[in-house]
Each structure stands twice: as structure tokens, then as C-alpha cells.
Description:
Elements: H1 2-19, H2 23-32, H3 39-50, E1 55-58, H4 66-72, E2 78-81, H5 89-95, E3 102-103, H6 112-118, E4 125-127, H7 134-140, E5 147-149
Amino acid sequence: MRATRYHWLNRGVILLALLLGSRHEIFAQSLLSRESLTPEEARSLAAKYHSHKSFLTLSHLKELDPDVAKELAVTNGELSFSALQTLSPEAARELAAHKGMLKLDALADLPVETAKVLVKHGGALSLKAAPLSDEPLSVLSEYPGLLVLGLIA
């Protein structure tokens, strides 16, 4: 019964959005629930959220290609990855260009190389879930902005 109710509710939201003429909004919402994005899809999302000082939360994204990170880094406001468990130094380098709050609260690990790159990020940085050992923690102690940490190994 619950799935049927959700299906009809989802249909109603889509129908309402279509009636209001926001097809682009539906496309953007569908991208927000993807586990991976192409650079072109990321560019489309970034274009939508670039002019807003709001939140762009990618709550299902599990992999982040450096080209996708580069496209998303141009957005303003908060950029949040609540399902991303790994981050390469190359993708981190692209995200470091982001000017707003950067939330990487699902990282399972933070390699030293990635920490060294993230220290160059100018905005606030949140790493609530990453269990940090001494070496990455030492690197992050040089972070110039607001740094929110969670677990420490």
C-alpha cells in the first residue's frame, strides 16, 4: 500500500510541476537522486544552482569523477555529498575550487594525499564521518577556514 501511495504522490508532484512549467526542475531533481553523473549532467545541475546561494545536496552520489567535480565546484552556497564514501586527490583538487561550504560527511576514509588537497579549499569544510588518523588530522590542522570534524580514530 505504501509504495502505491508514494507512486501516486510522485505522479502528483510531477504533474503539478509540469502544470507550473518547470520541466527543468524535474530534470534537476532526477539528477540529484543519481549514484553517478556525467560531466554534462553535472554542468546542467551547476547551471541551475550557480546563481543561487543555496544548497546543492547530492544525497545518492557514490562516485565522483574529477571532471564531474570540476563542473559542480562552480556552484555557490553549500555543496553536500552525503553518500560519497571515497574521494580521489584529483576530484578533491577540483572541489577545492568551490567557494562555499563543502560537506563530505560520508567519507569512509581520508587519505593523506586527499587531505593535503582539501586544505587548499577556501570555504567551510565538513568531514563528520571520516575516521581520521594522526597523519590526515595533522594535515587538516593547517586548514585556514571553518573545519567541522566528526570521528577521530
